[in-house]
Amino acid sequence: MRFQTKLMIFISLLVVVVTGLLGLSFRYMITSALYEEMGKRALTVANTLAVDAQVRDALEQTNLAQLRSRINEAVKPVQASSSADFITIADRHLIRQWHVNPERIGTPMLDPMNDKVLQGQSFITESTGSLGQSLRAKTAVYDEQGKAIGLVSVGFLMTDVEQNIRTYTYAWLWFMVGALMIGILGSLLIARRVRRELHGLEPVEIGRLYQEKQAILESIGEGIIAVNSSGQVTLANPQAVRLLGLPLGTTLNGCELRHLPGAAGKLADVLVIHPTVENPIMEPNYEVIVFNEEIEVQQRVIVVNRVPIKDKSGRRIGTVASLRDKTELLRMTRQLTEVKDYAEVLRSQTHEYANRLYLISGLIQLECYDEAVDFITQESEEYHVHKPAASTLLPDSIIASLLIGKKKQALDKGIVLHSTVCGAFSTLSPTLEWSLLAAMAGNLLDNAMEAVAILSTPGGQVWFRLEETAEAITVEVADNGAGIAEDIREKLFVKGASTKAEAGHGYGLALVHEYAERMGGSIKVHERTGGGTIFEIRIPLNTSVMSDEAKGGYTHE
Hints:
Shape: rod-shaped
Structural class: alpha+beta
Number of strands: 16
Radius of gyration: 53 Å
Low-confidence stretches: 275-286, 388-394, 543-557
Number of helices: 15
Strand order of the largest sheet: 11-12-13-15-14-16
Strand content: 15-25%
């Protein structure tokens, strides 16, 4: 059953129930009011006759003919004007002296309440008499001395009361029918409006969309956060919580973005827009779309893309933004660059070795066997220069490939790259990540070769040492370049700090520092004897025995 049909049925049933309850309440009130009104009318008529002098004088007569004649003259006009169904007058002995049915005149009244009436009490009761069910009022007639000399009973048959009740009930039934028709029409309009607002979706579909949205938000690698026009967070996925430096599992919905701890206030400045601040002449409903705006949060550079949320009238009701960690982007870019460089080296080596094979083939065809053997021996020796460094690094082939590529790159630049590898590399450590170690080594080697290339003098050399001990793995990269100026050395690992004038530099060493901290290591920077710089990274293999200086951070000498 469609949601629109369910809503119509629900509203219609609600109208029926409400109007039915109101009808029962109305019937009860009408019945009570009619009973009360009829009773009061009957008592009023009875009191009128009880104080009538003609009735009092008639009841004091001893002659029954004169008594009944005078009572008849007094009662008939009153009965005609009051519309009472019956009027009964009895003497002090409770013998009927006047009755609407002449056959009842002269018979006694047997109601036990009549004795109480003669004692001075008036009653309004519902009882069954000779004419049927009726509502009657009874009161006593007193002489001049205040002594009860008779009784007056005035009544209205219940058939008349019930007829009045039915008349009001029929009117109320028509009202219920009208209310039900209006309810059905209103439910139809409401259902159509709700369906339009829900874009024609059924509740089950909306629930499924909500679950899908939650799953999508949790699966996205970027942080997604939305705020309303007041700056309150209406949506935030786990990645956004992590990028804001908040504990995992923190619920941000309903929180004021500016009141969150940490650097969330910087993000609030980007998301909560005040047009008068950005541009005094900006229209109140206008807001620009922002892409790739950078802010620093928890020592991370966050790239923010901001898009306004607007209603159908074009009025801004909030802002949604995506958050990306620029450090992660740079790490991926660096890895892609290294893979590209490695591919270029392989392509170059393939071309070179193809040429050498052609050369060997030519020497053999010319029967220059000695020259061919000498050339093959020379090539074999050059291969074994690279082979020890590559083959020793069994835990991770990326580092071995990195060294092969860097040696070729250094050779192309006229730089000699010396590599030393010591250790069995068999110790397992939960903090050691070889991919991060390869990225750190690649960054340091690139910087070292650039530092040597700046001098533009022959004899440029770079030294690489990878060593494993029982306590730690050490990576050392040294060069005989120009060294590092003192003012740069103080901010060497700060994001954006670089000796290069071009934009986009200054992130490599910051990544090296971050990776070292992630693995619980430390970095030392000091000058090399004879010129140049030495970078030393120490990654402990057991974090429980880390020294104080190895608990993240770096030092320079």
